[in-house]
Design a protein that fits this description.
The complex is a heterodimer of chains A (186) and B (423). With 186 residues, chain A is of the alpha/beta class. Helix content of chain A is 39%, strand content 20%. In chain B, the strands form three sheets. Chain B has a seven-stranded mixed beta sheet, sandwiched between helices. In chain B, helix 12 links the parallel strand 13 and strand 14. The relative contact order of chain B is 0.10. The chains are: A alpha/beta (186), B alpha/beta (423). Chains A and B meet through helix 1 and strand 2 of A and strand 1, strand 8 and helix 10 of B.
């Protein structure tokens, strides 16, 4: 089982990101479960979403305690929410930011992880470029595919296309591809 | 067709397949996506011959369903929590009149304190209104139970609540097979009312009944629920034959063969329980579990049958009878009347508190050593509890409990009333 936890704020598409991951896994013939954890239902409040992927039926219904991967859509959460709680020692960390880990104040922490497991990508910037909106969720999934290798990039693209048909989907896919390239070569 | 979709969406599609003629909708978290989904099906023409009515409250929603059903239409609505309470009078009305309405409950806690997250207090509040209550373990089962529910309701002329855990199921994306229209049509014939308001053949429905006949009407409601104990498994078997997978029924056992400890629970928590059971079985511990699907009627004999020679029962329940203990546990104890084994009540997940594999495993291990109290609240924050109890002892004007607990969860925060009384 591969467990991903996504942190962000209301309005950043955190819930949709988990759903997209689950659709991508489904398209590869795997079982996947995605669900949200809400605090107060308002824009800007911290939101967590979860996605489990497995080759067999997923029966567990608890929030992900020990994620294999973290996607942090909003770096302002890094020091106000315990986003890294339970992360596996060889887990993956993908952060939406163009700042360095040192500037983010987490350089020492991430040094403990395999180098190629940790990455930051300016997904908001990519989203603004392609979609003209600061919605980094789909773009980050491209980075996720690159660093974890747990989903084919093509599955991510098909999932985005399925959820967002037409030009919106195409723009999100373009952003995701850019993120994939950045993460793959980081 | 197998699809990766939100539980609520799949349920909305299932409702559509059942061809309801009247859907009366009022939104409430966490069921809103269901009624929105059904509305979308009516709007885009997928669901034909269905009058979709936006009403002004939940009480109105069920009242409209009652009127529609009494006039011979297949009627559906959905609600949760405060919404179910707001329509409480109508809930009793529908059952008392014997109208085959199907209603989804997106299980959610009842306030105060206000809480939008999952527990079973809403369905439990109305467990004895005379509705059949079915609990879904997965979103697939939620879809399948709704299809069975219309047939069950109409066969018995009794309303049916299909209960699914709010957020945990309603808002979860998973792979769900949504059946084909033809298969549902073959399984679910058109509604043929036992009673109907018809100007061509007029009679009244809803007479006032005095002491001379009320007992008999109530006995017949009881009799109907006992009949449902037979019909529910029949319909589940017919469903499996038609759709190719098991769903529903009275109870579903998991590895109870030779189990010393049997865990009993309703709804989605059974998934996590099965994970715990498998790990403990791998360690050589004789443990099994039972998912109770039909809570009303409560399957006394069926449950007794699967519990067999177990030495102890652990009831994991998302409901509470304050001052008494468990709601489910009391029903389980009734099933095991005459059998002298401990039935441990574990109150878990109230107000959406996560029920974790780790905590369940610990509880099951302690139960196996008979180290549990009669009633345990899972993962309680004893520091916060004890702080509040002290606070209440020390001053009369100790303030609202909910706010005080929240303040004590904030590191460095103190309750406002503490400061006030000290100054």
């Amino acid at each position: 089982m591969f467990q991903t936890r996504i942190h962000g704020r209301g309005g950043q598409g955190v819930v949709t990101a988990a759903e997209l991951l689950s659709i991508a896994a489904f398209l590869e013939g795997r079982h996947a479960q995605a669900f949200p954890s809400f605090g107060s239902e308002r824009m800007g409040a911290p939101v967590v979403s979860f996605c489990r992927m497995d080759d067999q039926e997923i029966r567990l219904r608890e929030p992900i305690q020990e994620p294999d991967a973290l996607i942090i859509q909003d770096p302002t959460l890094l020091h106000s929410v315990d986003v890294f709680n339970g992360l596996k020692d060889d887990g993956f960390i993908l952060i939406n930011s163009t700042r360095s880990f040192k500037e983010l104040g987490i350089a020492d922490f991430v040094a403990g992880f395999p180098a190629h497991h940790v990455c930051d990508v300016g997904a908001t910037e990519l989203a603004l470029k392609h979609i003209k909106r600061p919605l980094p969720n789909a773009a980050l999934l491209g980075g996720f595919a690159a660093i974890t290798g747990t989903l084919h990039m093509q599955s991510v693209e098909r999932a985005i296309e399925q959820k967002f048909p037409g030009p919106v989907g195409a723009a999100n896919i373009a952003a995701a591809r850019d993120a994939f390239e950045i993460a793959a070569h980081a | 067709m197998l699809k990766q979709t939100e539980g609520s969406q799949a349920v909305a599609e299932a409702i559509g397949l059942c061809r309801p003629e009247v859907v009366c909708a009022y939104p409430i978290t966490p069921q809103t996506h269901i009624v929105e989904g059904v509305g979308a099906l009516v709007k885009d023409g997928t669901l034909k011959n269905c009058e979709y009515i936006n009403v002004e409250s939940e009480f109105a929603a069920l009242s409209v369903a009652i009127g529609a059903s009494a006039a011979g239409a297949r009627a559906y609505t959905a609600t949760a929590s405060q919404g179910l309470l707001f329509m409480a009078e109508a809930v009793y009305n529908a059952a008392g009149l014997g109208l085959p309405i199907v209603m989804t409950i997106g299980n959610r806690a009842i306030g105060a304190p206000i809480n939008i997250w999952n527990d079973h207090s809403d369905s439990m509040a109305l467990k004895d209104a005379g509705w059949i209550q079915l609990f879904a373990e997965t979103n697939q089962e939620a879809v399948d139970l709704h299809i069975q529910a219309f047939r069950l309701a109409e066969q018995l002329s009794c309303p049916v609540m299909v209960c699914m855990d709010g957020f945990i199921l309603t808002h979860a994306y998973e792979s769900i097979d949504v059946p084909a229209q033809e298969t549902v049509d073959a399984f679910l014939p058109a509604f043929e009312p036992v009673q109907v308001l018809d100007p061509a053949d007029p009679y009244s429905i809803g007479a006032m009944v005095g002491p001379e006949a009320f007992m008999e009407v109530r006995y017949l409601a009881h009799h109907k629920q006992l009949e449902a104990l037979e019909v529910i498994p029949e319909i589940a078997a017919a469903f499996e034959a038609a759709f190719g997978r098991p769903a529903g029924g009275l109870v579903r056992e998991y590895r109870t063969d030779g189990a010393d400890t049997v865990v009993v629970a309703l709804g989605s928590v059974n998934g996590t329980i099965k994970e715990a059971v498998d790990r403990m079985r791998d360690d050589g511990i004789a443990i099994g579990s039972v998912s109770v699907c039909s809570f009303r009627p409560f399957p006394l004999e069926a449950l007794r049958g699967v519990i067999g020679a177990a030495k102890r029962i652990v009831c994991i329940e998302k409901s509470l009878a304050p001052g008494l203990g468990g709601v489910v546990a009391s029903n389980v104890r009734m099933a095991l009347r005459g059998v002298q084994i401990p039935i441990y009540t574990v109150i878990a997940g109230l107000g959406g508190r996560p029920v974790t594999l780790r905590s369940l495993s610990d509880i099951f291990a302690r139960a196996g050593r008979d180290e549990l109290d009669d009633v345990t609240f899972l993962d309680l924050n004893w520091q916060a509890i004890n702080e509040q109890l002290s606070r209440a002892r020390e001053a009369r004007h100790s303030g609202p409990i909910a706010e005080n607990i929240l303040k004590s969860l904030n590191p460095g925060g103190t309750a406002p009333f503490e400061q006030e009384t000290r100054s």
